[in-house]
Amino acid sequence: MTDLIPAFDAHAVFVAPWTEHLASFGWIAAMGFCVAVACGLVGNYLMLRRMALMGDAVSHSVLPGLVIAFLLSGTRDTWPMFAGALAAGGVTTLIIEVIHTHTRVKQDAAIGIAFSTLFAVGVILTVTFAGQIDLDADCVLFGEILFLPMEPMVSMGGWTLGPAPFLRMAGVCFGVGLLVIIWYKELLVSAFDPGLAKSLGINPRVMHYGLMAVLSLVVVSAFEAVGAILVIAMLILPGATASLLTTRLSRVHLLSIVHAALSVWMGVSLGIWLDCSMAAAMVVAGAALFCVAWVASPTDGLLVRWWHGLTNSR
What gap in Å lies between CA 273 and CA 85, rounded to an integer? Predict the structure, then answer.
C-alpha cells in the first residue's frame, strides 16, 4: 500500500477492538453512541424547525464560555468548565432570539452573526490570556474521544460504573430520550404548526426555549468527546439520513438510533485503520451512511428517480 493509505488488517480493524482491546474501545464506542443518539434526537427537531445551524452556533460559543469559566474559577475542573460552556450556550440562544425578534434580520442571519462573533471573542480571549490558560484549543474544537479510557473510573457500591465524562453523557442521553417520549406530541405539533399548537393549549414559545436549553446541554456535554466543530454533524446526519427513508417522526427517531450505532462501529474501525481522529472517523462513517440512503432510498433515492425518469421517457 502507499504511505497515504495504511495496509488493511481485518483482524486489527474488526476483531481486536472488541476482543483484545474491549476495555478501551468499548468505552469509546459507548461514548460515541451516547453522543450520536442525544445529538440525533435533538437534531431531528432542529431540522423540522429549519434551525439546523443553531447547533453550529451553540457549539462555537463553547470556546469563550470555557475561557471565561477558567478566568473566574482559576481551575480546569470539569464542573466549572461545564457550567461556563453551558452558560455560553444559553447566552448564544438569547442573543439570536433578541436579534431575530427585535430587528428585521432573519433567523439564519442572526445565527451567523451570533456564532461567528462569539467564536471570535473566544479566540481573542484565548490568545490574550494564553499565559494564564492551560487550554488545548484543538481539543476544544475537534475533541479527543481516545482520551476517555484514561479518565478516572467512577465506582459505587463496589461496582465500576465507568469514566465520569461517559456517565455524564449517558445521563444526558437518557434524559433527552425521556423528554422526547414524554413531550413527543407537544414537540411535534409546535415544530410543524405553532398556531395549531397554541390552539391546543401548547405554548410554542416554551417548547422552543425548552428545546434550545436541551440543545445547549447536549452540545456542551458532547463537545468533550467530539469537539465543537464535529458536533454539528452529529446533530444533522442521523436525522437527515433517516428522513430519506421515512416521513414519520417516530420512525425517524428509531432510524437515528440505528444510524448512531452503525456510524460508531464503522467510525471506530475506520479510525483504527487510518490511525486518525476517532470522532472525525465516526462523522465520516455517518456521512457515508447518508450517501447510501441518498442513493438507495425507496422513495427519494437517486436510483428510484433515475428509474422513474427512464420509464417515463419511454
Answer: 33
Distance between CA 137 and CA 123 in Å, rounded? 9
| Adjacent-strand bridge partners of 162 | 154
Q: Looking at the DSSP assignment, which residues form a beta bridge with residue 159?
A: 156
How many angstroms separate the CA atoms of 241 and 128, rounded? 42
Matching residue, cell 456521512: 287
Distances (CA, A) of 176 to 24, 159, 215, 217: 26, 25, 9, 10
pLDDT in tens, 36-87: 999 999 999 998 888 877 877 777 777 788 788 878 887 766 678 778 877 8
| CA dihedral for 135, 136, 142, 146, sign (positive or negative) | negative
Question: Coil, strand or helix: which one is 305?
Answer: helix
Within 10 A of 266 (CB to CB), how many other CB atoms are there? 17
- State residue 143 phi and psi, 5-degree precision: 70, 170
- Pair 66, 227: CB distance under 8 Å: no
What number of CA atoms fall less than 13 Å from residue 48's CA on the CB side? 23
What residues does each domain of the chain span?
10-150+161-312
Per-residue pLDDT averaged across 295-306, rounded? 85
Residue 241's CB: how many other CB atoms inside 10 A?
27
11 DSSP 8-state letter: I
According to CATH, the superfamily of the domain at 10-150+161-312 is ABC transporter involved in vitamin B12 uptake, BtuC (1.10.3470.10)
Q: How far apart are CA 14 and CA 272, in angstroms?
A: 9
How far is 127 from 176, CA to CA, in rounded Å?
35
Angle between helix 22-48 and 53-60 (nearest 10): 120
